[in-house]
Amino acid sequence: MDNPYGLMALWAQGDWVAKGTLLVLALMSLGSWTIILSKFFDQQKLKKQAAQVDAAFWSATSVVVGTEQLSADSAYRYVAESALATEQRGRSTEQSIERALAKVQSRWSDGMTFLATVGSTAPFVGLFGTVWGIYNALVKIGVSGQASIDKVAGPVGEALIMTALGLAVAVPAVLGYNWLVRRNKLAMEHLREFGMDLSTSIK
Fold it and tell me: Does residue 2 sit in helix, strand or coil?
């Protein structure tokens, strides 16, 4: 038997505010999982790029040869090419490496603000839906003049679903944010070490 007090009932019986709140939570969840999964696959590529550097770059006959052996989309290759281009112009490579590292770090951080925002605001969006649902339930009770369990349970239960949905959206966003930040930090540390060693090798 279909649940008369479930999510589908909430969508079918809810007004435009309730449906709007559900849509906002759905978009937040979709955006969070999209970022988490895309960042995970990006970080897997970074691990392969780091392994490629450790295996091939430093064993090459020169920095130029080692750079050419790296993948075209490698962040390490981008840093190395930036340093080599600056070195050919007779300028210090340290600043160019720092600028390249900053651009890479900025690119790796894309989407993290969205996860942090979802993690901090989704519970309040769900709470807003709960408050609105309870308000509507009280209005219906006042209009009907009946406050029996069967009249209260449905609207109040559907309203509380909003709180659960807000938490269900926020928790993965918070956990994903912390997990991705930690992995980004480790990857950035390896890239910075590469940049330092590269600067020494070019001098």
Answer: coil
The pLDDT of residue 67 = 86
Residue 156, both tokens: 């109040």
More confident residue, 118 or 131: 118
Q: 0.70 exceeded by the pTM?
A: yes
Token code pair at residue 166: 């807000």
Can you state the angle between helices 75-88 and 149-202, rounded to 10 degrees?
Answer: 40
Q: Where are the beta strands (DSSP E) in 44-174?
A: none
User: Using CA atoms, how far apart are residues 118 and 180, in angstroms rounded to an integer?
Assistant: 15
What is the Cα–Cα distance from 28 to 25, expressed in whole angstroms?
A: 5
Residue 15 Cα distances to 18, 20, 72, 167, angstroms:
5, 9, 52, 22
Cα separation, 48 vs 198, whole angstroms: 19
- Can you give the C-alpha Rg of the chain in angstroms? 26
The tokens describing 64, both together, are: 């130029």
Q: How confident is the model at residue 1 (pLDDT cuts 50, 70, 90)?
A: very low
* Beta carbons of 191 and 104 less than 8 angstroms apart: yes
Could you tell me if 201 and 63 are in contact, meaning their C-beta atoms sit under 8 angstroms apart? yes
Q: SS3 for 132? A: helix
Q: What percent of the chain has pLDDT over 70?
A: 86
